[in-house]
Amino acid sequence: MLIDIHTHAGQGANGIAALESMLPGGVDAVVSAVVADKPAMRRNAEGRPEQFRTADAGEYRAATENGIRALEQRGIRLVREAEEIKVGTPGIVLAIEGCHFVEGDLDRLDEMEARGVRSIQLAHYVVNEMCDIQTAPEVHGGLTAMGKAAVRRMNELGIIVDVTHCTEATVRGVAATASVPFICSHSNLVTDDLLGKDYCRFISAEYARMVADGGGVVGAWLASKLKPNPLPGLISHMFRLIDTFGVEHVAIGTDMPAGGCAGVIDDFSRHRELRTALLDRGMNKDEVDKVCGGNWLRVFRTVRSAAMLRTH
């Protein structure tokens, strides 16, 4: 099985082509994230996403709804539970990048779970009411009271909490609040040679260990800084994660075909190379199966099962 735990497949100009490449690329499921803060976000002169305006009330919710509706209309199978992911039968798991759509009303999380959304990031590139982000000055000092309430509600609903784009202080708050595993769907470990503002989206070993200690996974990221050889770079970062806290807590989260992937890797046709590369580096089949989907499936099952137990 091969699962990419953070993509934007099915959206944008290359969305359909990416979905059509899943089967020939050997990809059985993708987690496709709708961007909630899109109305207030743009790329600056350096090409870095940032907030450029204040969104009007309801804009974030409308953008989220429109994104989910677009994915529903693509005609590919939507996956609601782990058991529905099948080898050779591609499916999409719905996700949202940023809790901006909540706008003070946690019941909107219930609405999204009912729509089939199974993974939600607390933050993205626009600071919201939940927490601080890696790419903007600190505002809240970590996870807010609303952020803690959102984490608890998502745990109750069976939605995976994703801390990607969050500050380390925020992750510390999530680790203290969450009752089930959470994830960092797409990032890489920062190393001494990568220190600096251009790598503010990379994470420390302590950040990654908080995710792993909670039973979660970190998805190795196909970041733009890995050009012009993105796949070898992705695999190198994957092994840094494995060497830091073990093979049981690593996954694949490319972020394609958006951002730094655009024009470099626009579909899933090369994903088979990831499995081959891991085997070539000395990993056995069971270990490769964990990284290529099994670890994230474990988290998915755990989060959903815990929520079902609460309702019975």
Task: Provide an overview of this structure.
There is one protein chain. With 312 residues, this protein is α/β, with parallel strands linked by helices. It has one domain: Metal-dependent hydrolases (TIM Barrel), CATH 3.20.20. Helices cover 36% and strands 14% of the residues. The protein contains nine helices and eleven strands. The protein has helices spanning 15-20, 59-72, 107-115, 145-157, 168-177, 205-213, 230-245, 272-280, 285-310, and strands at residues 3-7, 29-35, 41-43, 49-51, 77-78, 91-97, 117-121, 160-162, 184-187, 218-220, 250-252. Strands 1, 2, 5, 6, 7 and 8 form a six-stranded parallel β-sheet that branches. It has a three-stranded parallel β-sheet with strand order 9-10-11. The chain has a two-stranded antiparallel ribbon with strand order 3-4. Helix 5 (168-177) packs parallel to helix 6. The radius of gyration is 18 Å and the shape is globular. The two termini are 31 Å apart. The mean pLDDT is 91.
The shape, in one word, is: globular
Query: What CATH architecture do you see?
Result: Alpha-Beta Barrel
Overall average residue pLDDT: 91
- Counted up, domains total 1
Query: What class, by secondary structure content?
Result: alpha/beta
Supply the number of helical segments. 9
Number of strands: 11
CATH homologous superfamily assignment:
Metal-dependent hydrolases
